[in-house]
């Protein structure tokens, strides 16, 4: 029988491979963010890890749902809450607000129970299920060292990789006549959008850094595995090969130095 | 020799007990947030846990430092970055902006390299070092179940307890003449302050919920320990005691019911 981790991993990979615009997953967008695919593929190459959810970073503008008695007052997603704008792609940012039917009523704030409109930048988040604590700890440490300081290991060796470059800005509200009121100016929205663009840039830089660090972690694991598996004879051969390589490198270096000295003399 | 965890815990407790306005810790404020003290004391009563850092939640207004070549562009804390306002206490919020020398230049946004001013609400965060993975997992699960969905276990069984009710709002910038410019109106600042007040309320509600859940986790641990330690004879005695208690409770209930029936008849 297959190991439970391998079984779970296979099921997740099957689901990922069939995910497309015709076969949506549970996320609001329904498909995997394109910008996450390289890092997802990298991680899933490791037999001890599998990605379970991801978001490459996004800008979203959300109209809260209607408040209900006794409900958490901060964010009510249910009850007709809806996205006015979402993108994972910085190229979609310019003038996004012209696509929303905002009524600009600067500095007219709602009283009492109204449905807030929040403008958000949310950075990369990755969830990775690991085979064991050793693997989870290794991944956690790599992520922390890359600046993903809000990372953590959850239950069942699930590692959440998080960073805290966010924006979370109240920009308006939905009024009783179902209008979308912006109590900040269009210029403010433009400025917040510019900041989000910068955060996207930083976010993708961090994602690349994470990619490289995970790649390095995986290949050093591979080298270790080669060493663990080799027989006595293989080890002898590797040592000879490595010794020859070192000799060759030394010889090359000496030749280069000689050449350099000669060049200096002729100058 | 003392166990390493116990040794570390004792050192932390010694530091906490001498922490005061005369003996500051490494946090910006220098002392433990008053509102954290009950939950810190509760956690530290458990021989398998010790709190290593905490913030009860705060509103802060921060002027970024000067940007340097090659530096992360998002938030530069160093280089003369400074807090214009910080509080852990909702009572300090009203009209905080009157204490800052803001120049209100609505909708005049800076071009190029300027030092941003950010208004932030940050919720409770608690770091708890646990003796082993079992204890860390128990605490992690309790925190997640209370809605602290960004919690995670770090290295050395350090649990970070985090929740994501935040605000992160660009409100202005420091100009070349060292003036503090607010590009949002005073009314906007007032509105953001009102939202922060609501978030504080929700934050403290969550903190109380977490207190109760940790308390329950600890006392169920204690009961288990009593059961683990008792001898056969003690177990027999406990069973008899519990049986007698149940009988007594049943008798009381019957009496109450009888009394109630009598009262109903006389009405």
Automatic annotation (TrEMBL), chains A, B:
<keyword id="KW-0949">S-adenosyl-L-methionine</keyword>
<feature type="domain" description="tRNA wybutosine-synthesizing protein">
    <location>
        <begin position="7"/>
        <end position="215"/>
    </location>
</feature>
<comment type="similarity">
    <text>Belongs to the TYW3 family.</text>
</comment>
<dbReference type="InterPro" id="IPR003827">
    <property type="entry name" value="tRNA_yW-synthesising"/>
</dbReference>
<comment type="function">
    <text>S-adenosyl-L-methionine-dependent methyltransferase that acts as a component of the wybutosine biosynthesis pathway. Wybutosine is a hyper modified guanosine with a tricyclic base found at the 3'-position adjacent to the anticodon of eukaryotic phenylalanine tRNA.</text>
</comment>
<dbReference type="Pfam" id="PF02676">
    <property type="entry name" value="TYW3"/>
</dbReference>
<feature type="compositionally biased region" description="Basic and acidic residues">
    <location>
        <begin position="224"/>
        <end position="252"/>
    </location>
</feature>
<dbReference type="GO" id="GO:0030488">
    <property type="term" value="P:tRNA methylation"/>
</dbReference>
<feature type="compositionally biased region" description="Basic and acidic residues">
    <location>
        <begin position="1"/>
        <end position="12"/>
    </location>
</feature>
<keyword id="KW-0808">Transferase</keyword>
<protein>
    <recommendedName>
        <fullName>tRNA wybutosine-synthesizing protein 3</fullName>
        <ecNumber>2.1.1.282</ecNumber>
    </recommendedName>
</protein>
<feature type="region of interest" description="Disordered">
    <location>
        <begin position="221"/>
        <end position="267"/>
    </location>
</feature>
<dbReference type="InterPro" id="IPR036602">
    <property type="entry name" value="tRNA_yW-synthesising-like_sf"/>
</dbReference>
<dbReference type="GO" id="GO:0031591">
    <property type="term" value="P:wybutosine biosynthetic process"/>
</dbReference>
<feature type="region of interest" description="Disordered">
    <location>
        <begin position="1"/>
        <end position="29"/>
    </location>
</feature>
<keyword id="KW-0489">Methyltransferase</keyword>
<comment type="pathway">
    <text>tRNA modification; wybutosine-tRNA(Phe) biosynthesis.</text>
</comment>
<keyword id="KW-0819">tRNA processing</keyword>
<dbReference type="GO" id="GO:0008175">
    <property type="term" value="F:tRNA methyltransferase activity"/>
</dbReference>
